Amino acid sequence: MGSQGTWVPWAHCQDRDSPGPDQEREKCWAELFDQLDLNKDGRIDILELRTGLAGQGLSAGSFERIVETGDTNQDGVLDFEEFTQYLRNHEKQLKLMFSSLDRNNDGQIDAVEIQHCLHSLGVNISLEDATKILLSMDKDGTMTIDWNEWRDYFLFNPLTNMEEVALYWKHSMVDIGELLTVPDEFSEEEKKSGFVWRQLMAGAMAGSVSRTGTAPLDRLKVFRQVHGSTDFKGNVLSSFQYMVKEGGVRSLWRGNGINVLKIAPETAIKFSAYEQIKNVMRGGNDTKNLKVHERFVAGSMAGATAQTAIYPMEVLKTRLTLRKTGQYSGIADCAKQILQKEGVAVFYKGYVPNLLGIVPYAGIDLAVYETLKFAWLNRNIGSVDPGVMVLVGCGAVSSTCGQLASYPLALIRTRMQAQASEKGAPKPSMLALLHNIVTQEGVAGLYRGISPNLLKVIPAVSISYVVYEYTRIVLGVDIEGRRGGKGKG
């Protein structure tokens, strides 16, 4: 949720003690209602809630859930009575949750109590992570959470039990699509319930829509990577014009089919490999928490495993992206022709630079993303969820830094995948290619095609995030990690 102190009436509400007379809370709710009732018609609709609570990092599903739960006369809006009744009931639920967390009944929640509660729900986190959760809610710097801090933090977050709070803490900052190498952690309960596969399906859907939306820029990147400055003198615009003239507007999406097809197997293999590698690293001790660098190593190894398994699809994608009109009738025909003319080995052309590129890209992407995210959280004490725009910004910057580091290897990989298609042409090794590019095109040649690649970062990350969030809602897992249909506790 966002920094709540910036909203004046809410700040007044937070200053008042709950143990005081009920009239104080009623007065506070009246101020909140007046602030949210933008058109002053005595009712609050979803749009007004979304506008008034825009800084709180809530998902679209949260606003719907608040209205559905509080709207007793089913007219689609909340009047003052419904609004106050909703908050009255919600605060009672929050009080029950607070009491269940407060094991020693001292009126304060500490990091050990948060860790114990999550462990009892099957979510194993370190004391360090529990402290991060605590710090996000601790406004007075006491290293504990009192009832007022707990209530004010979750006042407009429609969570109804500790299972939902646990999932919210765990998944409110979940990473999307291809943003991070380190996959999310899931408990045994989540794996058995099918939650994991719904989560992965949402990621695959987000990746599919995102890649389709940015496919023309991706094709332009591959086209410019392969056609070096000696072959093609044109700029970005003339490259677009050449592709459209050669095959029409539809040709800008060449290779996108297989690019989308490979997402599902790659995601599934990466996740399965990650789980197996983690088990090996734990040495049979299921309760051991892996440190960030251990998770990074496990994530990189899982990524390499997935890449090895689906690499032939990468080669097919490059060939289909670069194909001339009528060259192949489809994916199967492309695979058949390559196999007949060039043999099986060609399906692993460029594999070595591809594998070498995973580590710098993933390491820098993860390091920059985590650094930016925690820098934001440190500047905005009182927030556990940076919100859509901050996450998209962090993802875009970290992805760009990762690409700048690994791009020369990606370019050499694509050249190797493509050059094998030219009959009788020399097929230089990775080092020979590197030498040729630097000699003929200079160091700048190693970054040929990077401009369309950088151009697609922000739209790709943004599309991914939006699709991911709404797909999770459709699949019954919204951004707070709530399971089940809308409006159900």
From TrEMBL:
Instruction: Assign the protein's first listed, main location to one coarse class.
Output: mitochondrion
**What Pfam families does this protein map onto?**
EF-hand_7, Mito_carr
Subcellular location(s) of the protein = Mitochondrion inner membrane
Compositional bias, Basic and acidic residues, is annotated for 13-24
Gene3D superfamilies for this protein:
EF-hand, Mitochondrial carrier domain
Is Calcium tagged as a keyword? yes
Name where the Solcar repeats lie.
194-280, 290-375, 386-474
What's a BP term from Gene Ontology annotated to this protein?
transmembrane transport
Specify whether Transcription is a keyword of the entry.
Answer: no
Q: Which GO terms describe its molecular function?
A: calcium ion binding
UniProt keyword terms in alphabetical order: Calcium, Membrane, Metal-binding, Mitochondrion, Mitochondrion inner membrane, Repeat, Transmembrane, Transmembrane helix, Transport
UniProt record similarity statement: Belongs to the mitochondrial carrier (TC 2.A.29) family.
Q: Could you tell me what this protein is called?
A: EF-hand domain-containing protein
> Source taxonomy lineage?
Eukaryota, Metazoa, Chordata, Craniata, Vertebrata
